[in-house]
Write a structure and sequence with these properties.
99 residues; mainly alpha; Helix Hairpins; 4 helices; 76% helix; binds magnesium ion
Length: 99
């Protein structure tokens, strides 16, 4: 099973192969907003606010698009998401255990 480090490496290799590692950080962030909009549209369908039929597979694909861009942006800034995830999780656990 791939971990975050593996996924970041996979994205890095893929982006370098096609020259997409040169994408500007601001463009990546804009694409992330676009993907979040696509996710929101699926959720609005799920909640019945939009009349189009909800499709779980479409939601899964949009979430994965956003994950790809998150990994890509992290690579752009040389951020180790696995390490950050572990730090964040420790903070969450401490915060939650105080309640
Ligand atoms: Mg998408």
């Amino acid at each position: 099973m791939a971990n975050l480090t593996d996924l970041q490496k996979q994205v890095s290799e893929y982006d370098k192969k096609y020259g997409w590692d040169k994408d500007k950080a601001s463009h990546i962030a804009l694409h992330m907003s676009e993907e979040l909009g696509e996710i929101s549209r699926r959720i609005l369908r799920f909640d019945g606010y939009k009349i189009e039929k909800f499709d779980k597979k479409e939601l899964a694909e949009e979430l994965t698009d956003l994950l790809y861009l998150t990994l890509k942006l992290a690579n752009k800034f040389d951020i180790d998401l696995k390490g950050e995830w572990n730090s964040m999780w420790d903070r969450y656990e401490k915060k939650t255990s105080r309640k």
